Amino acid sequence: MSESIERVVRELKRPVAVSPDLDAKVMAHVLADVRTPVPVRRLWLWPALAVAAGLALLLFLPRGKDVPFTLVAPQASSVSVVGDFNDWKPTPLVKNRAGAWEARVRLAPGQYNYAFVVDGSRWVADPAAPRNAVDDFGSPNSVVTVAL
Amino acid sequence: MIKALLIALLVPAIAAGQAPAVQAIIDSAARAGLPTRPLVEKALEGSAKHAAPDAIAAAVRALAGALADARSALGTATTDELNAGAVALRLGARPEDLSRLRAARSGGNLVVPLGVLSDLVARGVPVDTATRVVVALAANGDDEYLAFRQRVDRDIDLGAAPIGSVIGALNSSGRSALQSPGKKP
Question: What's the distance, CA A110 to chain centroid?
């Protein structure tokens, strides 16, 4: 019993062989751990992205309203609407079952001149809308005002 | 350069004959700080309607002059406000009327009030009356302006005289009569 205790004591007292560059190795590991970026849960990132996306939508989505344009012309073979909002290039209307021609155009707030072109050549002001009393070209326009 | 290209591409009739004249007007307007988009739209309208090049140039020139007058009357204004003001001026409204409306509705957008003014004139309401009405309603919101105009339209469609329909619409909006400019009922 005492012999085994003595053996343990001898073992404990035996000088430990330590590499002379141990300190340097330990410090290298410590520094490496410090420099390694610790993954942080950036919980703020997703709400920030959502807010940024919302702002982008507000900025870049076309503002305004879908404005209906309607002309009752059951005998017409085609009707289009032209105006400030489409650079006076025809936007075709679609004929419904009742013989009325319809289209909806998304317009930003503002005031727009427009007219209908029936069968590709006949210019018609919208009978259901105010007319622009300024008629520069001998073919009256209607006016639509889209509020903010 | 961009404007010239736009005109040349979009307005064949102008490109054929009057491009220099229209382009000069638009360039001059741009140098004066006026919005050029309404002028381009006017040229496009003339082209789409197969108007004579001289008529297109005259219309663009008239609009440019009205835009300049509208800016003088309104001061700082958006393109839409200047455009609406130009139409009102060409219908006979006076620059001081626009200034008064700006003062009465300071901070508010004038597109709808000026649009309603033009609409009323187009329906046969004398321009002086229409101007006084629009100024008198300056405290209202855009929706109320549009509702007012709809009431006038409805009454005219039902056979009322334009001025009578304006008075009727004023009465139903809580105003007993046309007020002197700037006065509240």
Answer: 23
Model-level pTM? 0.71
Other Cβ atoms closer than 10 A to B168: 16
Which among B107, B95, B96 is positioned nearest to B139, based on CA atoms?
B107
The verdict on A148 touching B (C-beta cutoff 8 Å) is yes
Name the residue with tokens 């079952």.
A97
> Among residues A139, A80, A88, which one has the least CA distance to residue B13?
A88
| ipTM value | 0.76
Cβ atoms B129, B166 nearer than 8 A:
yes
Strand partners, A103: A69
In this predicted model, what pLDDT tens digit does every residue of B173-183 receive, in sequence order? 766 445 444 44
For residue B68, what are the CA distances in angstroms to A3, A28, A78, B103?
A: 114, 75, 39, 19
CA B113 – CA B133 distance, rounded (Å):
10
Instruction: Please state, in angstroms and rounded to a whole number, the distance separating the CA atoms of residues B109 and A148.
Output: 9
B142/B108 Cα distance (integer angstroms)? 9
Q: Using an 8 Å CB-CB cutoff, list chain A residues near B122.
A: 130-133, 143
B26 exposure class (CB count in 10 Å sphere: 0-12, 13-18, 19+): buried
Q: Is B161:B170 a contact under the CB 8 Å cutoff?
A: no
Q: For chains A and B, count residue pairs whose Cβ atoms are closer than 8 Å.
A: 83
